[in-house]
Amino acid sequence: MSKIFTNELIKKLSLLNTEKMYLNDFLHTWDKTDQELSAIYTVATILEEMRKDNISPKVFDSGLGISLFRDNSTRTRFSFASACNLLGLEVQDLDEGKSQVAHGETVRETANMVSFMADIIGIRDDMYIGKGHAYMKEVAESIEAGHQEGVLEQRPTVVNLQCDVDHPTQSMSDMLHIINTFGGVENLKGKKIAMTWAYSPSYGKPLSVPQGIIGLMTRFGMDVSLAHPEGYEVMPEVEEIARLNAQASGGSFTKAASMADAFADADIVYPKSWAPFVAMEKRTELYGNGDDAGIKALEKELLAQNALHKDWECTEDLMTKTKNGKALYMHCLPADITGVSCDEGEVAASVFDRYRVPLYKEASYKPYIIAAMIFLSKFKNPSDTFKTLMDQETSRIL
Amino acid sequence: MSKIFTNELIKKLSLLNTEKMYLNDFLHTWDKTDQELSAIYTVATILEEMRKDNISPKVFDSGLGISLFRDNSTRTRFSFASACNLLGLEVQDLDEGKSQVAHGETVRETANMVSFMADIIGIRDDMYIGKGHAYMKEVAESIEAGHQEGVLEQRPTVVNLQCDVDHPTQSMSDMLHIINTFGGVENLKGKKIAMTWAYSPSYGKPLSVPQGIIGLMTRFGMDVSLAHPEGYEVMPEVEEIARLNAQASGGSFTKAASMADAFADADIVYPKSWAPFVAMEKRTELYGNGDDAGIKALEKELLAQNALHKDWECTEDLMTKTKNGKALYMHCLPADITGVSCDEGEVAASVFDRYRVPLYKEASYKPYIIAAMIFLSKFKNPSDTFKTLMDQETSRIL
Amino acid sequence: MSKIFTNELIKKLSLLNTEKMYLNDFLHTWDKTDQELSAIYTVATILEEMRKDNISPKVFDSGLGISLFRDNSTRTRFSFASACNLLGLEVQDLDEGKSQVAHGETVRETANMVSFMADIIGIRDDMYIGKGHAYMKEVAESIEAGHQEGVLEQRPTVVNLQCDVDHPTQSMSDMLHIINTFGGVENLKGKKIAMTWAYSPSYGKPLSVPQGIIGLMTRFGMDVSLAHPEGYEVMPEVEEIARLNAQASGGSFTKAASMADAFADADIVYPKSWAPFVAMEKRTELYGNGDDAGIKALEKELLAQNALHKDWECTEDLMTKTKNGKALYMHCLPADITGVSCDEGEVAASVFDRYRVPLYKEASYKPYIIAAMIFLSKFKNPSDTFKTLMDQETSRIL
């Protein structure tokens, strides 16, 4: 907690090219340059330091942050609300209902109608494969057009709070946790991270977490190992992105046959359940047809399929296979903890418990990551804006 | 976007008598003088200009804007939230449930209980004929009494966000759109506007839109032509208001037998579905008795009645009958667009599409109109307040 | 409304020891010293005076006030929202559902996940005997641990908005009403207050109101008389607290056999329905077992039990037994008013009506009491903070 540190970060930020982030959306991490990602971490840390020093980073005197969640969400909702509030935006929920996915004219009209005084639109739409990202693009294009056509005097920017393809606010928070744990991004080269499937007695968990992880972690020269049972493949296009990232960063992206293989000598493990891609495609179709019986049958089938892989659990025994038996255990929370939140789950209670505090810390970055995404989309010269804020030195609490 | 223009508007505002608006409600446009309406447009435009110039018009350091909606509403909700947020009020929803219309002691008590720190109460209650306006009056009288009795240290003001009789925030936004389209209120004398019924495959759309339009547009020397199929009469007392307005303003209020007659040589057309008044009265009674079967039967009957008038559609052919074939097409949105949102509806897709941008623009005024209503009910010398704000020159975004 | 009065209160506040309130929760009034309670009244009154003088007491430039309500609540919700808004906090609702009472790991995790940028957590959990207070303690301990472990950079404080044991924001508002009615706390010695059960055609009203009243009012040297039909006993541990309080304050705590006995010569009467403790214990168990049939049977039984005591009504006749027939009638609202909100209820319509304005006034203190609880938990030297605010003299409305 020193303003000297904050000012150093502001100087660092001034050297990063963030020009294209201005008035732009944050949909996938792989749309962004390394410098842009670095700017996100830097701004997130500046905001965190300012808050610790009781300096308010309120940059909006008024303005709305619209939240559009297809699914119930306490954690993401609070992270988004916290980020908006910190910067001075008031959250206004746009509740379109879970199942009704609007299209075409309706999306365009609604997107414009709610945006007359909106600065940010945060969208979480992870339920339907092939729909979430497409919807966010449609909203973004609608408001871009609205701005060009003179309907919207300013252009709200869209933040992806989780789609079917990527979960950038999660993966970026995870990454900031890794950076802080390993003492800097420069220490990550050659570190091994195991992103693995894990058993859960529930079905339909989104693929965007593992996809987000392999799509981001491959950019830092790390050895990223993906493991899952047969049938739980992630989107091939995201695997391809991971492969290309690894080539460019001097790291590697490999697929392991088992949790044990992936965990072997790993510095970081991220065991987490997700649904089979094919099943999610089928589910999207069933929902589209309103086929309730089909959905129920599919759910039953999925639970049975999951149950074949109960050995995919992050146990103490498996943890001993990791680097010095001390890999950093990660999870996006909430986890299915064996004997705690379910009979058999993703992780042994003793493993989870040993990492509980780091896991909470991992989650704590999300409001700052979201705030950083908002900040960088709204200020052309973000380091200048921070200088003004530091000079102003308004107390957050009097 | 020039502060010179804003300052001129502020000067203009200083010449208007807005004294009676101070600490007063906005329930019907016909309760207000011409100068008061002019003040609303002026303040709305000042607020819009200030926002474009990034000057914050935040006048409340804290305070609540209570929203009380009987019906689901995305657009009005966002307009009200935007207006409140722009001025510094936080919205707090009072959800009394849709069907439970409270009376007497309950209204008085609730109105006082929520108002201890409220500055504004925005109410939308358009579902039941004979109830919405009465309810707003009851709330207004309750808080007026609460203030007189020393319970409320300040008197929140009520803004009608749509009742059974009038829809002032809609009609005023529409009017501001007309003023801006025709280059000033002074150009409206002799212009013809057609407010007509249109077919929709839904029932029960409120009458307050056409009523609001004929009750307001007749005040500017325009020729207002109302057309609808037999059985779709609007409230006779509002027609009477329109007639008196037209006499006073040197315009006219006439009723046409068909859409084509109304459209003939019109400068502006506003084709829009609404429910038969008599049916709405019946529905109010059925709801009051909790007669679900009766309601369902009535709905079926209404849909059948509507279906007799499918020829009441705003087609390209009908548009050619308007002044130079180029009348301004208006709608409060969302519209029932033939082939887009329904098979057969209020308007042809090509007509709607040609006017899409102006329609969005029309809607964009509503947050400013609501903010103007709030502003004028809270400041005794609004032009002085604006001068202070312009001198302060606080940035909305840093 | 004079700043001289406000400044005197600030001076008074500076003499009170509020050190232990700093960063601490407000769960029960009996956890707090007399000086601490006095500080709450003083701060509440300072805030009220500042608002009347249009001086903003906004102390947070940003921050969240989390509301967690197990039950629907309009009044408490608005009181909490008003208090948060006045001080600069934005309310964010945490809706965990009514019946799902989370435990252990889930509580700990959720409490931390929502608290990264939260300053206050307001909880209302009054439905289940033996659960509400325990839950609040669990939340408080979770965030305290989160703060110690470095997860939360600041420690949000918990305000009890009603639990199964106490209802401090209600009893403190009631007390402030009494203080103001009788011209100061120094005039309360020897005054008699009757806290009595009253008939209501509903079941399951919480015991925390009578418990809160006897737990607080016994601290001011008053004679507190509790009366209820057999079977409607309150928690024995709270009666014990009342007894000890009365001893220490030089007042008395007695139990009367009837409403008439309790009312005899009373200066204040507080007739109000509540559920039998034993029945509430049973209900908690039935809810825990998901025994819907059992719950329904219990409800029927409770209504029948209540109906045996319809003579427990605050009638005009009973009011004549009070001191000069002019006792102050109090209620936490809404009341069951005979012939108004029900056929037979807690109070005669004419009694209620005569006291309507004071009853509304009584309720009006709650937002200020809650704001005072927040304020004193956030500022180490609250009188210094108020001095700064008075010097700043920011207008609440421009």
* Rounded radius of gyration of chain A (Å): 21 Å
Q: DSSP strand (E) fraction of chain A?
A: 5-15%
| Chains forming the largest contact | A-B, 32 and 35 residues
CATH topology of the largest domain in chain A, what is it called?
Rossmann fold
Report how far the terminal alpha carbons of chain A are from each other.
Answer: 18 Å
Which architecture of the largest domain in chain A does the CATH hierarchy give at level 2? 3-Layer(aba) Sandwich
Strand order of the largest sheet of chain A: 7-6-5-8-9
| Domains of chain A, number | 2
Q: What characterizes the major β-sheet of chain A?
A: 5 strands, parallel
**Helix proportion of chain A:** 40-55%
Number of helical elements of chain A: 16
Given as residue ranges, the uncertain stretches of chain A (5+ residues, pLDDT < 50) are none
User: Can you say what the CATH homologous superfamily of the largest domain in chain A is?
Assistant: Aspartate/ornithine carbamoyltransferase
Residue-averaged pLDDT of chain A? 94
Number of strands of chain A: 11
| CATH first level of the largest domain in chain A | Alpha Beta
Oligomer: homotrimer
Structure, explained:
The structure is a homotrimer of 398-residue chains. Chain A has 398 residues and is α/β, with parallel strands linked by helices. Chain A has 2 domains: 3-165 and 366-392, Aspartate/ornithine carbamoyltransferase (Rossmann fold, 3-Layer(aba) Sandwich); 170-363, Aspartate/ornithine carbamoyltransferase (Rossmann fold). Chain A is built from 16 helices and 11 strands. Chain A has helices at 3-14, 34-52, 75-87, 104-113, 132-148, 168-181, 208-217, 236-249, 259-263, 277-288, 292-307, 316-320, 349-354, 356-364, 366-378, 382-392, and strands spanning 64-69, 90-93, 118-124, 157-160, 192-196, 223-227, 252-256, 268-271, 328-329, 337-338, 347-348. Chains in contact: A-B, A-C, B-C.
